[in-house]
C-alpha cells in the first residue's frame, strides 16, 4: 500500500510458503485446507521438486481441485534435481531458495505481480516458515501482514529463541573455556541443567538442546541462520503453532511476551479431520514417497497393542552400525514390529543392509518392513502399541493424538527438545537420546511394550483425550483457529 493510499479491506487471500520439506509441507497443506473450509482464498507456493513428488506419490493435486478458492503455484528451489533434500542439505536449500525462489516470490506479490496490491487477487497475508527471514522485508515492502508458522515444536522453537542468552551465559554443550592464550578446554557437561531458558526451568539439560548447539563454531551457518531467525520472529504480526494450549502452556506464554497474537491451532492433522468430519469427507495424503499400504493388512493380523512402529521421518539418517544395533535390539526384544526403511535413510549403499540370516529367520512372522507407510493410518491401528520415533514434530503429535507411547531417538533440530518433553514433562514415553546399543534398545522396548505398558498407555490415553478436545468445538485450538480467521478477514492492504 503506498504511503498516501487509504487501506482497503479486500477478500482475504493468504499466500502460504512452507520450507519445502516433507514435515513442513505436510503440516502447511493441512492448514491451507482448514482455510479453504472457511472460504479464505489460498495460494500455496510449493517448489517444483516437491510438487512433482506430490503428483507422483499422491492424488493430492487433484484432491485440492474441489476447493475453487485454492491454487498451487510453484517456484524452482535452485538445487540440481538429483540433489538429496536431506537434513544436512538444509543450509544449501535455504541458500538456493534465496537466490532463485525469493526473487520470483517477491515479483509475484509486488506491484505489477499476479498477486500484487494492484492485481485482481491481491495477497492480504503471507504465512511462511519462520526460517524465511526474507518474508518480513517483503511483507513490509508491499504493506501486508506476515504470520510466521514454524512447523517445529514451540518448545523446540523457544530453545532457538533462547540461543543468544545461552551463548552469552556459556551454556551451550561445548562451552569453550580459555585456559591460556593457546589452550582451550571444552566443557561438555551434557547433563547440566540449562538455566537461561525462561519457561523451561529445570527441564532441559545441555544434551536436550537442539543438535546444532553441540558446536564449537558459533560462526557455523546453522547457528547464524537461527540467530537471524530469532531477530525476525518478533517482527511478525502473529505466530501460528501446531500445538495445543494444555500441552505447551508455559512455552506459549513466553511467546506471548514477544508477539501478542499467538494462534495454537494444533494438532493440525487432527484439527482438519475434526472439521472435515462435519462434512463427512476424507482428507488426503501429502507424502512425497509412495506409501506401501501392504502393512495395513499385516497389522490386521496382529494382536492389539502388540506391534512397535519404527520410523525416523523424512530427513533423519542412520549409519549401518546403528541400523544393526536397532535391528538386533528389536529382534531380541521379542516384540512384533513394523519398520519404515525410507530410501536413503541409511548411510552407505543399499546392498550393505542384507540382514544376517539368523536375524531374518527370527522375524519373518513378527516383523514387517516397508519403505514408506501411511503413518497416520498406522498409528491409529489398534495393533500398534508403541512408536520408536525420531520425534519429528508431526510424528510426535500424531502419536499423541492416537494415544501411542514413544521411544525417543532424536536426530536433529527440535527433536532433542521434543524427546526430553515426551520423556520427562509429558511422561508419554522413554527418551533414548545419544545412545544406540542393541542391549539398551532391547531393554527399552521391553519396558515400553511389556513392563510399564499399562502405565504409559494410560498416560497416552489421557493426553490423547486433551488433544482431541482442543480441536473439537469449544476447544482451545478450535477457538484459536476461528480467531485466526477473523483476524485474517480484517487485514487490509
Ligand atoms: C522435519 C523435522 O525432522 C522435524 O523435527 C520438524 O518438526 C519438521 O520437519 P520430519 O523429519 O519429516 O520433519 O518429521 P515429522 O515432522 O515427523 O514429519 C514426517 C511426516 O511424514 C509425518 O507427518 C508422518 O506422518 C509422515 N510419514 C513418515 C509418513 O507418512 N510415512 C512414513 O513412513 C514416515
UniProtKB/TrEMBL annotation:
Keywords: Glycosyltransferase, Transferase
E.C. code: 2.4.1.323
Example GO molecular function: quercetin 7-O-glucosyltransferase activity
Catalysis: reaction(s): 7-deoxyloganetate + UDP-alpha-D-glucose = 7-deoxyloganate + UDP + H(+)
Name used for this protein in its record: 7-deoxyloganetic acid glucosyltransferase
InterPro entries from the UniProt entry: UDP_glucos_trans
Family note: Belongs to the UDP-glycosyltransferase family.
A Pfam family it matches: UDPGT
Transmembrane segments: none
Entry-linked PANTHER family: GLUCOSYL/GLUCURONOSYL TRANSFERASES, GLYCOSYLTRANSFERASE
Organism encoding this protein: Buddleja alternifolia
Amino acid at each position: 500500500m503506498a504511503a498516501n493510499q487509504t487501506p482497503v479491506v479486500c477478500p482475504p487471500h493468504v499466500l502460504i510458503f512452507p520450507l519445502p520439506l516433507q514435515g513442513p509441507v505436510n503440516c502447511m497443506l493441512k492448514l491451507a485446507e482448514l482455510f479453504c473450509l472457511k472460504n479464505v482464498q489460498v495460494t500455496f507456493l510449493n517448489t517444483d521438486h516437491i510438487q512433482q513428488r506430490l503428483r507422483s506419490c499422491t492424488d493430492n493435486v487433484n484432491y485440492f481441485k474441489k476447493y475453487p478458492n485454492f491454487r498451487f503455484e510453484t517456484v524452482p528451489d535452485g538445487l540440481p534435481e538429483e540433489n538429496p533434500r536431506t537434513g544436512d542439505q538444509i543450509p544449501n536449500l535455504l541458500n538456493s531458495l534465496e537466490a532463485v525462489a525469493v526473487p520470483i516470490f517477491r515479483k509475484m506479490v509486488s506491484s505489477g505481480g499476479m498477486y500484487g496490491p494492484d492485481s485482481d487477487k491481491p495477497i492480504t497475508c503471507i504465512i511462511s516458515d519462520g526460517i524465511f527471514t526474507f518474508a518480513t522485508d517483503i511483507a513490509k515492502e508491499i504493506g501486508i501482514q506476515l504470520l510466521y508458522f514454524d512447523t517445529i515444536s514451540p518448545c523446540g522453537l523457544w530453545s532457538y529463541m533462547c540461543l543468544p542468552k545461552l551463548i552469552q551465559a556459556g551454556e551451550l554443550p561445548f562451552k569453550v573455556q580459555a585456559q591460556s592464550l593457546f589452550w582451550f578446554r571444552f566443557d561438555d557437561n551434557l547433563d547440566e541443567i540449562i538455566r537461561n531458558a525462561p519457561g523451561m526451568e529445570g527441564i532441559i539439560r545441555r544434551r536436550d538442546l537442539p543438535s546444532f548447539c553441540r558446536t564449537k563454531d558459533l560462526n557455523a551457518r546453522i547457528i547464524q541462520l537461527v540467530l537471524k531467525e530469532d531477530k525476525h520472529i518478533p517482527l511478525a504480526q502473529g505466530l501460528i503453532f501446531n500445538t495445543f494450549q494444555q500441552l505447551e502452556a508455559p512455552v506459549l506464554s513466553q511467546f506471548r511476551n514477544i508477539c501478542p497474537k499467538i494462534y495454537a491451532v494444533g494438532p493440525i492433522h487432527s484439527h482438519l479431520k475434526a472439521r472435515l468430519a462435519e462434512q463427512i469427507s476424507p482428507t488426503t495424503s501429502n507424502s512425497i514417497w509412495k506409501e506401501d499400504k501392504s502393512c495395513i493388512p499385516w497389522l490386521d493380523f496382529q494382536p492389539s497393542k502388540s506391534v512397535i512402529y519404527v520410523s525416523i521421518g523424512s530427513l533423519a539418517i542412520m549409519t549401518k552400525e546403528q541400523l544393526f544395533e536397532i535391528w538386533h535390539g528389536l529382534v531380541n526384544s521379542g516384540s512384533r514390529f513394523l519398520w519404515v526403511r525410507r530410501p536413503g535413510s541409511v548411510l552407505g549403499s543399499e546392498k550393505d543392509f542384507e540382514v544376517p540370516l539368523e536375524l531374518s529367520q527370527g522375524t519373518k512372522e513378527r516383523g514387517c518392513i516397508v519403505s514408506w507407510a501411511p503413518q497416520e493410518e498406522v498409528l491409529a491401528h489398534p495393533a500398534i502399541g508403541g512408536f520408536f520415533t525420531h520425534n519429528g514434530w508431526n510424528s510426535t503429535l500424531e502419536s499423541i493424538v492416537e494415544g501411542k507411547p514413544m521411544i525417543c531417538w532424536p536426530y536433529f533440530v527440535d527433536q532433542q527438545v521434543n524427546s526430553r518433553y515426551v520423556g520427562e514433562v509429558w511422561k508419554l514415553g522413554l527418551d533414548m537420546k545419544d545412545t544406540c546399543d542393541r542391549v539398551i534398545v532391547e531393554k527399552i522396548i521391553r519396558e515400553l511394550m511389556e513392563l510399564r505398558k499399562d502405565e504409559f498407555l494410560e498416560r497416552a490415553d489421557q493426553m490423547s483425550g486433551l488433544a482431541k478436545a482442543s480441536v473439537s468445538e469449544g476447544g482451545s485450538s478450535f477457538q484459536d483457529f476461528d480467531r485466526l480467521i477473523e483476524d485474517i478477514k480484517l487485514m487490509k492492504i
